[in-house]
Design goal:
The complex is a heterodimer. By secondary structure, chain A is an alpha+beta fold. Chain A is built from 18 helices and 29 strands. A five-stranded mixed β-sheet of chain B has the order 2-1-5-3-4, with helices on one face. In chain B, a hairpin with a 2-residue loop joins strand 1 and strand 2. The chains are: A alpha+beta, B alpha+beta. At the A-B interface, helix 1, helix 3 and helix 16 of A face helix 1, helix 2, helix 3, helix 4 and helix 5 of B.
Chain lengths: ~750, ~180
């Protein structure tokens, strides 16, 4: 029963246990929650990106129907400084507190929060707040396009060998610069907070759409000087977050202050425009890649220098080169990172942060090298295959990239590719085949969980992590079902409350590998407690030793004698037994290097007559260890592919070069992949459980599917058109210039 | 200062009476004249299943049926629904049984975070009963393109819609209006 190498429920297709709530509209996302006497807040965003707020004229807004109060720099509470530490679990997205001073650092920065009795009243009054600004000159609208701008970040650097000498001596060289536009997470549910104070302002309950209830609880406890026990952050359903809901933003602080002052619950749902301006973005990047290789295709030097944007109020590092040192076998390598403060809302992690950008540059450069060498791009990758991690020197726990490349190439029909540019046609369309490898590190965080086995026949699991749509509720239930033999219907899972045992962020593709071991430990602990009851005085198996008992089908047994968990508890008049689990990464971290790998093969169809490109087909193979719930895991990869098509062809936050104002802060002008853009997708999940990483063999799957998609598209476009696209997104304007 | 409403007349706190049918039940409520159907559903009537993703008719998360047609409830003042039949996701399941579209979304894992999902299903239900829309994948994808899914579950959503089509026992050439809830 407890043999996770041959599971019965783990690894099986399991419909989501929260599915019916989501599909009937009963799942309560933050923005639709209500509280007795609740008021509505509507923020007023700055309309300049750089300067000073000189005056706020509030009389007209204040006199509007239903308005209760307006919060701003002139009347805002003095708070404690925001903490900002990953190590202490209280990192925030933007360390500047709301309304802290009158300096405007970016378009959309909050200048006021209007609170009224209804949403309509708050919105109407927010429109009547008049802000007077003094615009400063010298707004920095974006990366300026120089290799030496910004601040060097030594901690993100890596080097080995003598890459400069090896590059200058290399028989074949690639020396190129790549640019990726800033992107919006555009998670479907905007940031939202509902704050309620209790016990005369001594206790705070915050409903937040967040990927990290524990982090937000810890940060707010510091800002409001509350004991952690007096602050609860709740997030049962999250309309996704692709990194921009990992850490708290200022709207949550403003909402909590308003609720405290007004002694009423206050709800704020950011309007989409403000969510895009001030709720996080993937910063633009400029990457300079130099590859040196022999005529046989073996890399002799890799030099990867990156610059990314940060804001003027924070210091966010989107580490583009973080996968590069581990990607290919090469003795001479250097990676560097710089950041440039610009007048944008603060950037933050966005799905596969840093690495997805770095892999675009590296895997496009590898395609350029393959063209230069007249070598098949798959063959070039196999020639530089890293059999162990060249960065750490450690063996991989499990790496099946070669199998991914071979399997995906075969299913795609790569052998039918004529390498000559523009040689494959179908009617008016030119067909391009391109490919890229992909990777994402496998990480694990400490996690705690609690289990109750109850006399009513149910099992409860609680953990302070979240389900952002990846299926965490379901895989936690699968784990409990696996270890107890109970049906899923009898298992209750509670996540998304900071008062539960401390769980990990839903980020970095780490939630599965972090959470399930703790859940398993808690289940086993509860089963041990149950066996103790069963074998003790008056127990169902009195006189036997706990080791004599087998666990299965929701009961304990000894030979033919089987008693359900519920009966064991009832026999001893017990309501329940509890189990605790607490797990963390261990010594394996020093013995192996852990990474997932994969490969994407893409067919594009380019119609030169109307300069239209379509991604027609994507065939991918992913080595992610074991998938706990294969359909949900495949869904993650398929979703990553869709987001990769957006990154490759559509998505860019456009900032006005004159004044750094965000131009396209809405869902129509910021172009996203739709149903009609979705290609035929064939995703294979290789099943090589990584038992060195954890007993479930799972490495996580949230981000890897996105990495490698954009370069596979740009490489396919080169094959179709002969024009190399080094800037993302590859817009119709860029395509027109190439046809 | 936001330009788009700077010259609009000052709103009062008066309300207007709205008589309409919501998920099959006749309702009479008082609404602010500037209240949008989406906000009335979510904030006044406590029907949170209809989602707000953009408030500008750009994402489709707020799709409901008004007299059998799929509409963005964020682009519709509540008072425009006078005498009309409004169906939300809460009205799609009947007698505790999931609608075939909901059932196939469950089986096909046609969602992740679930936030765009009610809108996807309301659009899907309407298009399956609309004889102007072909039954082929390309036609369905085109017709569904007003509903953004940022999780990118498009493949499974398409599969779910086509599976529901089979379960509803008809194709685009034989539409049955009563399938529109």
């Amino acid at each position: 029963m407890n043999d996770l190498t041959r599971p019965r429920v783990i690894g099986q297709r399991t419909p989501r246990i929260d599915g019916e709530f989501k599909l009937t509209g009963r799942a309560g996302y933050t923005g639709e929650l209500h509280a007795e006497g609740m008021l509505y807040g509507y923020p007023v965003p700055a309309t300049i990106a750089h300067g000073k707020l000189e005056a706020l004229e509030l009389d007209e807004a204040q006199a509007m129907p239903g308005v209760v109060d307006i919060f701003h720099h002139g009347n805002f509470d003095t708070l404690h400084r925001s903490p900002n530490s990953m190590g202490h679990g209280d990192q925030v997205s933007e360390v500047r507190l709301p309304f802290e001073d009158e300096t405007i650092h970016y378009h959309g920065q909050y200048v006021a929060l209007v609170v009224a009795k209804t949403f309509e009243q708050a919105r109407a009054a927010a429109y009547r707040v008049v802000a007077r600004y003094r615009q400063a000159s010298g707004a920095v609208p974006s990366l300026l396009g120089r290799d030496d701008e910004g601040l060097p970040i030594e901690s993100e650097g890596s080097s080995r060998g003598d890459p400069e000498a090896a590059f200058s001596g290399a028989p074949v060289k690639i020396d190129r610069t790549y640019h990726i536009a800033a992107e919006s997470h555009l998670q479907m549910e905007m940031h939202a907070t509902l704050a309620e104070w209790h016990d005369g302002g001594r206790r705070l309950v915050v409903h937040e759409s967040t990927q990290g209830v524990v982090y937000q609880r810890n940060a707010m406890a510091r800002i409001f000087d509350l004991a952690q026990e007096d602050l609860e952050v709740i997030s049962h359903y999250i309309g996704s977050g692709f990194g921009n809901k990992l850490f708290m933003w200022p709207h949550a602080v403003a909402t909590a202050v308003a609720a405290r002052r007004l002694q009423r619950p206050v709800k704020v749902v950011l309007p989409r425009q403000q969510d895009m301006m001030s709720g996080g973005n993937r910063p633009a990047s400029r990457q300079h890649i130099r590859l040196g290789a022999g005529r046989d295709g073996r890399l002799t030097s890799v030099i990867h220098d990156s610059i990314t944007e940060t804001s003027l109020v924070d210091r966010y590092i989107d580490s583009c080169g973080s996968a590069t040192p581990s990607f290919y076998a090469c003795d001479n390598l250097a990676v560097s990172q710089r950041i440039l403060p610009v007048n944008h809302g603060t950037p933050c992690p966005m799905r596969a942060p840093g690495e997805v950008s770095g892999i675009f540059a590296l895997e496009t450069a590898m395609d350029e090298l393959a063209v230069e060498l007249k070598m098949d791009p798959v063959e070039l990758r196999l020639r530089n295959y890293a059999e162990s991690d060249p960065e750490s020197g450690l063996p991989w726990s499990s790496k099946q990239l070669d199998k991914c490349l071979q399997s995906a190439a075969e299913r795609f029909g790569w052998d039918k590719r004529n390498p000559e540019v523009g040689s494959m046609r179908d009617g008016d369309e030119i067909i391009g085949y391109g490919m890229a490898s992909c990777t994402w590190f496998a990480g694990r965080q400490p996690c705690q969980a609690r289990v109750e086995l109850r006399a009513d026949g149910s099992l409860f699991v609680g953990c302070g992590t979240q389900d952002i749509g990846t299926g965490t509720y379901t895989i936690v239930a699968q784990t409990a079902a696996e270890l107890t033999g109970m049906p899923l219907a009898d298992i209750e899972v509670k996540l998304g409350e900071s008062g539960l045992p401390s769980g990990p962020l839903s980020g970095g593709s780490m939630a599965t590998a972090s959470t399930l071991p703790a859940v398993a430990a808690a289940v086993r602990d509860a089963l041990d407690a149950l066996k103790e009851v069963a074998t003790g005085n008056g127990g169902a198996f009195e006189g036997l030793s706990a080791d004599d008992l087998e666990v299965g089908q929701g009961g304990l047994s000894h030979g033919e004698h089987r008693v359900s968990f519920a009966e064991v508890l009832k026999t001893n008049k017990l309501a329940s037994v509890n189990g605790q689990g607490s797990t963390a990464p261990g010594a394996e971290q020093n013995a192996y290097s852990f990474r997932s790998f994969g490969a994407h093969f893409v067919e594009v169809r380019f119609d030169p007559g109307i300069s239209r490109v379509r991604v027609a087909r994507v065939v991918s193979s992913m080595d992610i260890g074991r998938a706990i719930n294969p359909p949900a895991a495949r869904n993650q990869v398929e979703g990553g592919i869709i987001m990769g098509i957006g990154m490759g062809l559509f998505e860019q936050l456009e900032y006005d070069p004159r004044d750094a104002r965000l131009i396209n802060s809405n869902v129509a002008d910021y172009i996203l992949p739709t149903h009609a853009d979705a290609p035929e997708i064939d995703v294979e999940l290789l099943d090589y459980p990584d038992f060195e990483f954890n007993e479930f063999g799972a490495r996580g799957v949230g981000e890897i599917g996105l990495t490698g998609v954009a370069p596979a598209i740009s490489n396919a476009l080169y094959h179709a058109t002969g024009k190399r696209h080094r800037d993302l997104p590859i817009t119709i304007e860029a395509l027109l210039a190439s046809s | 200062m936001m330009d788009d409403s700077a010259h609009s007349p000052r709103p009062s706190d008066e309300t207007v009476r709205l008589d309409f049918t919501l998920n099959g039940e006749p309702r009479t409520i008082e609404v602010a004249p500037n209240a949008v159907l989406l906000d009335v559903l979510r904030e006044q009537l406590g029907l949170g299943g209809t989602k707000k993703g953009c408030d500008h008719g750009q994402c489709g998360a707020c799709t409901v049926h008004v007299d059998g047609l799929a509409m963005n409830s964020c682009l519709r003042l509540a008072i425009m629904c006078q005498g009309q039949q409004v169906t939300t996701i809460e009205g799609l399941a009947k007698d505790g049984q999931l609608h075939p579209v909901q059932q196939s979304f469950l089986e096909c894992d046609a969602y992740q975070c679930g936030y765009c999902t009610p809108g996807q299903m309301m659009s899907a239900t309407a298009l399956l009963a609309d004889d102007r829309i072909g039954a082929d994948d390309a036609s369905v994808k085109e017709a569904m393109s007003g509903n953004i899914c940022r999780c990118g579950a498009y493949k499974n959503i398409l599969e779910a819609i086509q599976q529901a089509r089979v379960q509803l026992g008809h194709d685009a050439t034989t539409p049955r209006k009563e399938d529109v809830a």
